[in-house]
User: Fold this.
Amino acid sequence: MTKRRDSHTYALFQGRKKVYIGYTSDMDSRLAEHKRAGKRFSRSEKTSVLMSAAGAADRQQQQLAAYRDGHGGMNPRYNTKPNGKTRINGNLQASVAGRQSVSDLPRPALAAANAGLFAELEASLHRDFDAETLEDCIFHAAETTIAEALNKGHTNQVLDFLGGICLDAQRPGFASSVLRCLSRQGMVGTAAWRVKLVRAGLASDSLPIRDAAVAAAEEWGDEPMRAILAKHSDPVYWLDSYIQKVVGLRFMSGRLPLPNGAATRV
Assistant:
């Protein structure tokens, strides 16, 4: 089946300065979302011809990489995560029964009565991500899907199931997107559970999952997350620089103060 060519990349500008690089299939709606999210820009510009959503996502990453090459490794102002936004792999490759267990998270065997519910939850998340790209600072339908699953009961089992998806390095796009949406739910689970999830994410061989783990630590923003980020040294330069920026900004903002009232990172 031929993929629809209905998407294109675009850039937002404040004066002459490029402040965001993205892609969309509905420019008017996306610009309205950016304005609701508080982004300040004076004009927008399409930067590619029409192509498939997957092709536009790849082109966006190429444009972000080119921008970083010319700006000391930094993204435009509103591409606040190193990769700008996450591309999703919508292929449902693994069944609930066949997924590999995660060693650093408690993953009790799924009860037979819940297996079908969890399979439907995963399928719903794939549909959400296939329908709309996940972007920074913009609400995504997957957040509602996760919230509804948590509100239906068996919260610990749901969190363990989602935690397993979040660390699935065989599907890094899907895993990292679920982790980002899960972290937007507020202080879910216990502090110990959140710590295990973020630590396991940072230890992943998958760059998108490590990036999402940093975003989760930033979202949750409690003292254990400060300590985890401060101790982590990432082998990828731009992600390690972003971690230092996140830790430094939080120290300066007072949300995550350093011990003994210090004001700078040591």
Observations:
- Strands lie at 8-14, 17-24, 43-46, 85-86, 134-135.
- The longest helix spans residues 112-131.
- The first strand starts at residue 8 and ends at 14.
